[in-house]
Amino acid sequence: MLSFETLSKTYADGTRALSAITASVAAGEILALVGGSGCGKTTLLRLIAGLDRPSAGRILLDGEAILEPRADVGVIFQEPRLFPWLSVADNVAFGLSHLSAFEREGLVTNALVRVGLAGYEKRWPRELSGGQQQRIAIARALITRPKLLLMDEPFSALDATTRASLHGHLLALWEESRPTVVMVTHDVEEAVTLADRIIVMQPKPGRIFDELDNPLARPRDRLSPAFEASKREVLRTLDRSLRDEEPQQHKTAETAGMWW
Amino acid sequence: MSTLEIAAATQAKTTGSPGASARRPSSRRLGLAGWLLPIALAALWELLVRAGIANGRLMPPPSVVGRTLWGLAASGELLTHVTATLWRVAAGFGLGAGVGTVLGALTGALPVARGLLDPTLQALRAIPSIAWVPLFILWFGIFEASKVALIAVGVFFPVYLGVAAAIQGIDRRIVEVGRVFRLGRLAMVRRVLLPAILPAWFTSLRSGLGLGFMFVVAAEIMGASEGLGYLLVDGQQLGRPDTIIAAIISFAVLGKLADGLLLAITRPFLAWQDLGRDTL
């Protein structure tokens, strides 16, 4: 289980990116973080990844505090971030250096089949399209069988068709080992397609506005009325979160005006 | 020598491979076309001198230069000079590139080292390297040591600047991937940082080598008893322009060969780069 206890992050310039976040994610659950820009979604994800340290509070994964990157936590970034000097196979196997070449090869072949890129082992990343590169990044993160998978808007740079097919790939991979997943997205449809639970966040300072359960059974049909209903509910909550924020923004504008 | 090629390659790299690969066949044809002018000029000059229209004393025709070159080669004299020059370039290049790489890595990676070292090195860089010659001769004598030191200074700066800039320019996002995979300090250097700076390092080594050849000429002109630079001075003092041109041609061939060798050694490490790079 993953849990946050009054988690806060204030940057050196005084920006309060996160303020007193308390939540928990069950093992095997897919959690989506949505919210307007600047609400601290990515900051939260970086804290969970151990790439940044919280200013206050803590993050526990199965009772252990996360202070630095862990072997059982995989990260997929917004961009593929492949190593251009490594072949596709070596990129996928980047986290497997402790295994023998033979074991690595088997796992890589298997992983590439899963993301639909079998036979691409010897290619260079630059020879692949953006969607293919992101699939390699997914394979690289999942090949170590992480207990927790973190994704920061992993499909946002891709076109709708590619995105839909990657959702399929991702769910298929998730079915295999059922890792806990925390994903950041600004795409409500994506959140409803993938997540079991959706946390809507609000900026200044970044905090949790509301939590929504997504009761839809998998596989989910994007065209079903139930899907539409879920999507509408999330959109409504998101709208509310943005409206609530407005007066506050107005206030800061006013005080700023007075200061001038 | 290769500055233009490097610039063209960098451009090809940034503009992406499709354009570069489309341009390749035509650029090869253009490369052949490049031979036309010098060959035509040489042939014309040969004809003019033979016909007695031009006096070939100050600018000897190709046949005379060729004969001189052949004579030098046959007597073994050329080999002595080439060996001496190459030895100096190799020693100076090794020294300058080695120190340049180490200091460049230090100032690129450690802000403390950058603050301490970089201003001084930048100031030293502003000194025209030839200005060191009198001092080096006083310090290291007029034999090999002072020449190697001068060449090393010439090689040092491009390598130092190239490595420092490459390290500072490493994509932080890709380093972050290394952190996610919990690479230790050494593994991070070996698996992420080193490969990331390799292309820029090789490019800086190439420009360093080019400067090495420039400075070996300066060093040898200023006092040597052998070496291609000495051959230049010798030709001047004996009033033998054919010897001078033979030495110049030897320099050109050596420089090109050394650059090609460096390129051949480094190319396997850069196979992952854009195809445009292959034409470099």
UniProtKB/TrEMBL annotation, chain A:
Keyword Nucleotide-binding set for record: yes
InterPro entries, alphabetized: AAA+_ATPase (IPR003593), ABC_transporter-like_ATP-bd (IPR003439), ABC_transporter-like_CS (IPR017871), ABC_transporter_ATP-bind (IPR050166), P-loop_NTPase (IPR027417)
Keyword tags: ATP-binding, Nucleotide-binding, Transport
GO molecular function: ATP binding; ATP hydrolysis activity
Domain ABC transporter: 2-228
Pfam families reported for this sequence: ABC_tran
Biased composition (Basic and acidic residues): 239-253
UniProt region (Disordered), positions on chain: 239-260
Signal peptide: none
Transport recorded as keyword: yes
PANTHER family in the record: ALIPHATIC SULFONATES IMPORT ATP-BINDING PROTEIN SSUB 2, TAURINE IMPORT ATP-BINDING PROTEIN-RELATED
Similarity remark: Belongs to the ABC transporter superfamily.
Protein's recorded name: Sulfonate transport system ATP-binding protein
TrEMBL record, chain B:
SUPFAM superfamilies the UniProt entry points to: MetI-like
Family: Belongs to the binding-protein-dependent transport system permease family.
InterPro entries referenced in this protein's UniProt entry, alphabetically: MetI-like, MetI-like_sf
PROSITE patterns tied to this protein: ABC_TM1
GO annotation, cellular component aspect: plasma membrane
Keyword Cell membrane: yes
GO BP annotations, alphabetical order: alkanesulfonate transmembrane transport; cellular response to sulfur starvation
Pfam families: BPD_transp_1
Bilayer topology: Multi-pass membrane protein
Keywords: Cell membrane, Membrane, Transmembrane, Transmembrane helix, Transport
Domain of life assignment: Bacteria
Keyword RNA-binding: no
The protein's name: Sulfonate transport system permease protein
Domain ABC transmembrane type-1: 82-262
Function description: Probably part of an ABC transporter complex. Probably responsible for the translocation of the substrate across the membrane.
TM regions (residue ranges): 32-53, 86-111, 123-142, 148-167, 188-205, 211-232, 244-265
Native source species: Bosea psychrotolerans
Subcellular location(s) per record: Cell membrane
